[in-house]
Amino acid sequence: MLGELARVDVISNNLANSGTVGYKRDQTVFKSYPEVFVYELKKFQEPRPVGNLGTGVFLDQIATPDISGSFIPSSRALDIAIRNGYLVIETSQGERYTKNGELIVNNDGYLVTSDGYRVLGEKGPILVNQGEPIISQRGEVILNSHVLDTLRVVVPQQGASIQKVGNNLLVFNSMPVRPYIEPYALENSNVNTVREMVELISAYRAYESNQKVIQAEDSITDRLISDLGRF
Questions:
Q1: Does 231 map to a domain?
Q2: Quick check: 5 pLDDT over 70?
Q3: Mean pLDDT throughout 81-96?
Q4: Distances (CA, A) of 163 to 98, 111, 118, 157, 196
Q5: What pLDDT does residue 138 have?
Q6: What does the alpha-carbon distance between residue 171 and residue 144 come to, in Å, rounded to a whole number?
Q7: Which of the four pLDDT bands, split at 50, 70 and 90, describes residue 230?
Q8: Number of domains in the chain
Q9: Order of strands, edge to edge, in the sheet holding 146-150?
């Protein structure tokens, strides 16, 4: 039951963020507890093997698959979709990665995400000062025909796990790649709402089934205690 509750929480969070730019859906990964080999015991007889009995599952991890979402067109020059990786941004906890290409220039003149994190280029934080730059397919940040910097783009190393931290931010063992940018576009979340709703209904039904089994066991136990109390 606890596993199904965790599954419901994860699916609900996916549905709540289905419209968030660059959001990566999570999925629950379960592992089984060790099985128990069961014997049938009868008076004056040798124990007869019955077979393995499962003892339930537990939540092993909440995984974030590296699957891209669909691209949606935009009319803003600073809206970009990263085709081959993740943007590198600066936070108070160090470098983090994101698919959120909804960029703006803040009051200090730096190129930042819509959440206010500074976007990092090959030279560090990208200072624009005045004006609105454009971003080329090669990730060049261009202002008045002058290349200010080139966006840093990374991908997870082979076998690296992706972990979520903060608001739509990711951390993983990364390796740099040459940027491949889609200007005037944003990457939608990779959440399939129909699939998530089907899984949510399935999780609720599984929870209710487990609940009924526990209620039946409680009823049997109560009856046994009541019957034994008569002797």
A1: no
A2: yes
A3: 95
A4: 11, 25, 20, 13, 20
A5: 96
A6: 34
A7: low
A8: 3
A9: 134-135, 140-143, 146-150
Same domain, 165 and 80: yes
Range of the domain at 37: 27-63
- pLDDT higher than 70, residue 231: no
What pLDDT is stored for residue 94 in this prediction?
Answer: 93
Model pLDDT for residues 210-219, shown as the tens digit of each residue: 777 777 777 7
**Same domain, residue pair 125 and 104:** yes
Q: Is residue 54 part of a domain?
A: yes
Distance of CA 95 to the CA centre of its chain: 18
58 and 153 co-located in one domain? no
Give the length of the chain. Answer: 231
Residue 85 has pLDDT above 80, yes or no: yes
Q: How far apart are the first and last CA of the chain?
A: 36
Pair (196, 173) in one structural domain: no
Q: Does one domain contain both 55 and 161?
A: no
DSSP labels, 41-105: --TTS--EEEEEE---EEEEEEE-------EEE-S-TTBEEESSSEEEEEETTEEEEE---BEEE
Same domain, 56 and 124: no
